[in-house]
Fold this protein.
Amino acid sequence: MTSYAAFIGHQPALSTVEIAALLPDFSLRKQYKDVVIFDTSLSLNQEFLDLLGGTIALARSVTEQSIELQDVPALLANELKGGKRSKVVFSLRSSGVSPRQLHGLYRACKQFLKRQGQPSRYVGTERKAASAVVLHEHDMLNGKRNAELALITDPETGDIWVGRTVGAQDVDAYSKRDIEKPVRDTTVGLLPPKLAQALLNLGVFAVRTRQQKAAKQTAKFTLPVLTVLDPFCGTGVIPMECLLRSWDVLASDASQKAVNGCTKNLDWLRKERKIAKKDATSDVWKQDALTPFALKKLPDIVVTETTLGPPLEKRPTLKDVQKLRTENDALQVAFLQNAAATLPGVPLVCTYPVWYSSKQPEFLRRVWDEAAKIGYSPALPVEPPETTERISLLYRRPGQFVGREIVVWMPAQ
């Protein structure tokens, strides 16, 4: 087993669970606010990180021995592959290390390398790690020459975990497919591509659980090939992420405007990323998700952002929430009933609205009461965090009055 550290974003519970969803042998070591340390027998790299919506950077341990900060310069020198006449570039990424300590540490690293006759340049500052763009520009992730070390101090024991960064989030790629796609509908809640990735990763877990198959024993992580149905496709955020994984996609929506927008966005993505139809098929059509599905072949998984209701510009009152909840609960129950009848045996990954009133978050109720009767039970790959008091996850951006509850529904065996 190899130890890894994932530097995660502003949704720590979801970030941890989506990693566990992809790794059948995931074993959690430590969970901090901004970092999760875990073990797996699989070799992980940039390709794995590109699948994760909630991980900023991924590091692989370079030693399992207990170290002190003064040991870091020698560990760094061991990771750098530069020649004595050429300057190497290095960086330090940390959690639980003070800016003052980090400043002294990177100076000590430069001095150590200088004594070895190795010119070097440090990128980043003691308060902010080098950006992903810089890490990619200087080839600091592939192990060929330059390097970034990750240092994580346990606040309780003082133990220091040290690893080498092997993957960093490609911010520009997210911006391009989110902002530059030809059709964006701002009249409805915009599903972030990173959240779409996390939902698809939960789908991988659901399919493996449903099939009751252990993943093939390989040294390197491999992504299974799936067919995904999104019956509330909107302008196609989830279908686009499917194509980027070379997954076949089925997409439908009750709105013809949404169907047209989804089709245009998928055509644009195919041209931008050179995704041939023979490598990943896509079928988009108009259909109300509450009407029976008549598919030639069932999908492996349904992954969808269901209707969240109207966007809210101010905090809702309890009376507002009661009306919105009654309407949305009825829709969600009807959708589950339709899925159970016409998509038998197919797991579902869904988002439900969560309204933030003046007192507390308000969740859907009836759909949870009816799910078991319809034939579904909730599941997650690891122990659910204490955020919803049920087996689900939360996603909410600061200042939003409507958040998302994420649920994985497993059909009865």
Summary: The two ends are 32 Å apart (CA to CA). The longest strand covers residues 402-411. Residues 173-411 form a domain with the Rossmann fold fold (CATH 3.40.50.150). The chain has two domains: 2-169, 173-411.
